[in-house]
Structure formats: structure tokens, C-alpha cells
Amino acid sequence: MVRSASPSPQGTAGTPAPATSTLSVRGVHKSYGHHRVLRGADLELPPGCLGGVVGENGAGKSTLLRILAGQLSPDRGEVAYAGRLGYCPQHTVLNPSFTVEQHLRFFQVAYDLPDLALAHELMDLLSFAGYRRHRVGSLSGGTRQKLNLTLALMHDPPLLLLDEPYQGFDWETYERFWELSARLRDRGRSVLVVSHIAFDTTRFDRLWRLEQGRPVPASTGAGEGR
Ligand SMILES: Nc1ncnc2c1ncn2[C@@H]1O[C@H](COP(=O)(O)OP(=O)(O)OP(=O)(O)O)[C@@H](O)[C@H]1O
């Protein structure tokens, strides 16, 4: 049973997660037909923590994140989180006919934001403010991903679920991404990054390796702090 998960981009508050956690996942199972992908996944993410879930292609990372974001129902298990969430899906759901600015306006309405100040700040930080009037269909993959990420972050939610968020980024933008994530973490946000790339694990406060359908705690290589 899912006690709390939001299908909408803005998220909704559901059953609160335990006081010590922003996100609490208990015993989540998911199969596609006979293919058992998640087999009792447990995970706790406290406030102000930058967490990572790594695993091989097909391990079930996106399935887990889609369940956490409320896009997919688990067969059983519980997901609870406090407040809104921001979800950056692996595959962008952008409309190629609309401009970057039009996307921001749509999400401003969806999130019920008074202005786009944070969105514009994120665009400056990710160096794509110059594309504001460009149609999404004309953008490079990396720039589309910058927009994808901005749409997930622009309402400053307490919980961020980011699926392969730096795919297509050049090195400078990749570094900016980590600076931004660390800044969010330092402001008390909980950030969960899913990636098949496991070489930069020292960036994380907590790390799990998704193996045989379960996130297994792993060393970040930097000493566990949070
Ligand atoms: N809608 C679906 N129907 C059937 N099988 C699916 C579906 N979605 C995913 N799968 C299968 O479930 C398994 C896990 O897929 P998932 O996309 O969650 O893995 P992943 O760890 O995110 O992989 P990647 O690193 O390649 O993105 C894979 O074997 C995939 O083929």
C-alpha cells in the first residue's frame, strides 16, 4: 500500500514521513509480469541529505523513483514523505512546440508560484538563460535536460527525486549541478539522485547500490557524515 505519493509535478503532502526522515520507503515490491524488479526496497532519507542510488542498467532505479514520485503504483510496500516533491524524470516530458519560457509559465501555474524568480536564478546558474525564447524542439539534449532539472527545482520543494539528472551535461554544467545539489542539501533539502554511473560517489552523504531488487547501503568513499 502506498500511503503517500504524488502523481503531480508539484506534489502534495500525504502521510508524513517519520520525524527523522523526509522520505521513508518500506518493503516496496514491483513486478512487470513475472519479472520481479523490486523485492522489498527499504530506504530512509533524512532532511539535509544528498543521497544516491546507483546500479546497473535495468536494476530498477527508474522503477523505484517512479514509485516514489507517485507515477507508478507498487505491488506492495509503503512510501511516505513530508511536503511537496520535485521529480526530474529520466526522459524529459517537454513539448517541442513550446518555448522554454512557456514551459516555465505552465509550471508556475501548476506549482502556484507568485513569480519565476527561482526559475530564472536556476537558468542563470545552469547557463541557459539565453534560450528563454527558443522552442524546446530546437534545443540540444543537454539544454533540454537543464530545463527538465529547472522544472523540478523551481518551486523549492523539501524533497527532490532526480533520475540521471546530469545526462548530456558538459563538464562545467556537471560541476554546477553538484554545487547546486550541495547548496540545496545545506539548506535542509533532501535530494535523491539515481544514476548508473557510480564513479563520483564521494559527492553523496548516503549511498545505496540497487542489487537484486533492494537498495543495499554502500560506502560513499568519503566517510559517512549525515
Ligand atoms: N513498463 C515496463 N514494462 C515491462 N518491463 C519494464 C517496464 N519498465 C521497466 N521494465 C523492466 O524493468 C527492469 C528495470 O527497469 P528500470 O528502467 O527501472 O531500470 P534502471 O535501473 O532505471 O535502468 P537504466 O539504468 O537502464 O535506466 C528492466 O529489466 C526493464 O526492462
From TrEMBL:
Q: Where is the composition biased (Low complexity)?
A: 7-22
Where do the ABC transporter domain residues begin and end? 23-225
Which CDD domains does this chain map to? ABC_DR_subfamily_A
Oxidoreductase listed as a keyword:
no
Q: Where is this region: Disordered?
A: 1-24
Give the coiled coil ranges.
none
Q: Name one GO molecular function term.
A: ATP binding
> Which InterPro entries does its entry note?
AAA+_ATPase, ABC_transporter-like_ATP-bd, P-loop_NTPase
Q: Does the keyword Transmembrane helix apply?
A: no
Keywords in alphabetical order, please: ATP-binding, Nucleotide-binding
**What is the official name of this protein in its record?**
ABC transporter ATP-binding protein
